[in-house]
Write a structure and sequence with these properties.
- The protein is of the alpha+beta class and 431 residues long.
- It has 13 helices and 15 strands.
- The strands form five sheets. It has a five-stranded mixed β-sheet with strand order 3-11-10-9-8, with helices on both faces. A four-stranded antiparallel β-sheet has the order 12-13-15-14. Strands 1-2 form a two-stranded antiparallel ribbon.
- A hairpin with a 5-residue loop joins β1 and β2.
- α5 (117-128) runs parallel beside α6 (143-152).
- The chain is globular.
Length: 431
């Protein structure tokens, strides 16, 4: 792959920090040094000398004075080394990416720590996208990322969604516009396809294994990058977990984003990103001039916790979290089936935190929710905010079962009855 062809103008300008040469020299030399180069705060002035954390299982983790010195200092752009290496071990265990053994240094697997999936997505899109360039995206998707893409002024092409992921027929129809024999036309093809393979936000779809293979084959045929945003990977309710795009990436054309927000805690602001070194290295050139690095204290804390658990212990805890959300999904599914059968359409999600419900007789669920639902003590999210054009009314609502108590989810039964009320389903209510 010629990675330069995928880079935006700003992506081409990214380069290693001028400080990097001298930082590495002082770290790696065996010559005794009086190091007057780095502008680092003196650790003797740090206030935190140690810490102890109580875990829910009754165990504890303790941070030494050396740990706290690392936690309060500047860190490496791509993450604290032992933490990053632990994440690389986890990534290889779960996905076995073909590029982990690639002899091509540009395609070889690179893992970096970032400040969560949103930061990683923003950086990756900036790396690839110039103003006016096309990209592929599900017709309904995560609105925060849509806002970032709007500011970048790319040209989105919405791909229709089906119960098992993007419509391959529609995707092939869209891509057929570009012919590799027509160089000028070919240069204008979409740069990347952004996709959430498991528990898509907002509509809960999980892309089938068959479609994943077809999408990757189309990426090879039409030479685009896949941005695999898999924040709900550990919340797949069926076993075994479906293969990721990274697991089939023989070319080095997948940038995969993982997050701790759904399984450890959103406040840590940590995630990790995996992909070909040619692209990932430029992503940590970007982080060095924006965040400098992800939160070091969070990295130190999570590293000690994960090292105590081990990879297998981490996965067992992730499975418990999955079971927690599965139970809530089932409670909400029963409530919806009891009260909306014949009046609404929905699909039971196979992963994630959301159910996507269509109310065919309601033209604008945003107006409906403000008038009918909020006054009864329950809030859902109207569907229009998840589309590229948010001004178009939607008949859908996104219902999240993640945060509410089980008792509250049972109470949702009462709220759902309002969809059946003799007034609420009349068009006059929305006038």
């Amino acid at each position: 792959m010629n990675y330069d062809d995928f880079l935006s103008e700003s992506g081409k300008l990214r380069r290693k920090s001028p400080f990097a040469k001298y930082i590495m020299f002082s770290r790696e030399t065996t010559i005794p040094l009086i190091d007057l180069s780095p502008g680092l705060p003196n650790p003797d002035l740090f206030h935190l000398a140690g810490a102890k954390f109580q875990l829910r299982d009754g165990s504890t983790i303790e941070l030494s004075s050396d740990d706290m010195e690392i936690a309060q200092s500047y860190g490496k752009f791509d993450g604290v080394k032992p933490f990053r290496e632990w994440l690389e071990e986890l990534t290889i265990k779960l996905h076995r990416p073909p590029t982990r053994t690639s002899p091509d240094p540009d395609r070889a697997l690179q893992v970096m720590v970032n400040a969560g999936a949103v930061q990683g997505l923003h950086s990756a899109a900036n790396l690839l996208l110039n103003k006016g360039q096309r990209f592929l995206i599900p017709e309904r998707t995560y609105p925060t990322f849509l806002e970032a893409l709007r500011v970048m002024q790319g040209d989105p092409i919405g791909i229709k969604m089906e119960e098992d992921g993007p419509s391959i027929t529609h995707l092939e129809e869209v891509l057929s516009q570009w012919n590799p024999d027509d160089k000028e036309n070919w240069s204008k093809r979409p740069k990347f396809f952004y996709i959430v393979p498991n528990g898509h936000n907002p509509s809960g779809e999980t892309v089938s294994s068959e479609k994943r293979l077809k999408i990757y084959a189309l990426a090879q045929r039409y030479d685009f990058i896949i941005l695999e945003d898999d924040s709900y990977y550990f919340l797949q309710f069926d076993e075994p977990r479906l293969p990721s795009f990274l697991s089939m990436d023989s070319d080095g054309r997948v940038i995969r984003l993982d997050s701790f927000s759904k399984i450890i805690g959103a406040g840590f602001r940590l995630g990790w990103l995996s992909g070909p070194r040619a692209l990932v290295s430029r992503l940590f050139y970007d982080i060095q001039v924006t965040l400098q690095h992800a939160n070091v204290l969070s990295q130190v804390v999570l590293y000690h916790m994960f090292r105590q658990w081990g990879v297998d212990g981490f996965l067992k805890r992730a499975d418990k979290i999955k079971e927690f959300y599965l139970r809530r999904r089932d409670i909400l599914t029963k409530a919806v089936a009891d009260h909306l059968t014949g009046l609404a359409k929905w699909t039971v999600p196979r992963a994630g935190m959301f159910m996507w419900i269509e109310l065919p007789t309601i033209k604008d669920t945003e107006k409906f929710l403000m008038k009918a639902v909020v006054t009864r003590g329950v809030v859902f999210t109207p569907g229009n905010i998840f589309y590229i054009d948010k001004s178009v009314p939607s008949s859908y609502v996104r219902v999240s079962y993640s945060k509410a108590l089980e008792s509250d989810l049972v109470e949702v039964n009462n709220a759902l009855i309002i969809f059946r009320g003799k007034h609420c389903l009349k068009k006059e209510v929305l006038l």
